[in-house]
């Protein structure tokens, strides 16, 4: 190592020690707060799992297959969904599948609830989106396990940390898609709404969101 590099490395910034001090402070002083969030999420998610497990697996398989047919109007897809889920039942993995299903659906719903309003705000605040964009890039490029370490420290083990980490990783997608959908609304449509005296709220709900819905739902 050359002398300059050796000199630079000899004065290490104590990031590790600072990070440990910060997380020790959080876990010592705000443990009740993080435990309350984890316990609340766990109760809700476990309650949903228990509720779905009360339904006979065959009925739930039929309902999911019917939903697949309703959404895609394809009997082949519905049949494939039914066969796949019945195979899971046959392998005695139904409870684990229900737990995963609840986690994924809850994470998707939470990501939409967080991402769509932020995307709407970003679409109407170009300067704010410029500051937000590098944060979204970082959230999407960092591996999920990087989020998992601090979340486990703060919230402990369980289904709640899995939900939180999944939401952190997934939320940038609805933010970007909502931003893209609203900013892609043709100007003549907005001008027509303004010409009819629509307020900003009416433009959002009756012009921008309906036009952007296919992009948002991607």
Sheet of most strands: none
Average pLDDT taken over every residue? 85
Low-pLDDT runs: none
Assembly state here?
single chain
Number of DSSP-assigned strands: 0
Structural class: mainly alpha
Number of helices: 12
Query: What would the principal axes of the Cα set say about the shape?
Result: extended
List the helices and strands in order: HHHHHHHHHHHH
The amount of helix comes to over 70%
Distance between the amino and carboxyl termini: 51 Å
How much beta, percentage-wise?
under 5%
Tell me the radius of gyration.
23 Å
Provide key terms for this protein.
single chain; 218 residues; mainly alpha; 12 helices
Describe, in plain words, how this protein is organized in 3D.
The model has no long low-confidence stretch (mean pLDDT 85). The protein is an all-alpha fold and 218 residues long. The protein has helices spanning 3-9, 15-29, 31-54, 57-72, 75-90, 94-123, 126-141, 144-155, 159-170, 172-183, 187-195, 200-216. It is built from twelve helices and no strands. Helix content is 85%, strand content 0%. Helix 11 (187-195) packs antiparallel against helix 12. The N and C termini lie far apart (51 Å).
What's a quick, concise take on this entry?
By secondary structure, the chain is an all-alpha fold. It has helices spanning 3-9, 15-29, 31-54, 57-72, 75-90, 94-123, 126-141, 144-155, 159-170, 172-183, 187-195, 200-216. The model has no long low-confidence stretch (mean pLDDT 85).
């Amino acid at each position: 190592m050359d002398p300059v590099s050796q000199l630079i490395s000899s004065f290490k910034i104590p990031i590790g020690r600072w990070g440990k001090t910060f997380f020790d402070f959080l876990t010592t002083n705000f443990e009740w707060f993080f435990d309350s969030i984890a316990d609340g999420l766990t109760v809700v998610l476990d309650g949903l799992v228990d509720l779905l497990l009360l339904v006979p697996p065959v009925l739930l398989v039929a309902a999911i297959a019917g939903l697949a047919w309703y959404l895609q109007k394809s009997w082949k897809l519905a049949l494939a969904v039914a066969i796949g889920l019945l195979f899971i039942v046959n392998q005695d993995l139904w409870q684990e599948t229900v737990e995963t299903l609840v986690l994924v659906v809850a994470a998707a719903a939470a990501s939409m609830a967080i991402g769509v309003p932020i995307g709407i705000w970003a679409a109407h605040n170009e300067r704010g989106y410029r500051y937000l964009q590098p944060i979204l890039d970082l959230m999407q490029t960092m591996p999920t396990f990087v989020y998992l370490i601090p979340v486990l420290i703060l919230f402990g083990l369980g289904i709640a940390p899995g939900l939180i980490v999944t939401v952190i990783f997934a939320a940038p997608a609805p933010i970007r898609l909502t931003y893209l959908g609203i900013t892609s609304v043709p100007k003549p449509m907005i001008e027509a709404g303004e010409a009819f005296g629509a307020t900003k709220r009416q433009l959002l709900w009756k012009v921008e969101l309906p036009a952007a819905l296919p992009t948002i739902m991607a």
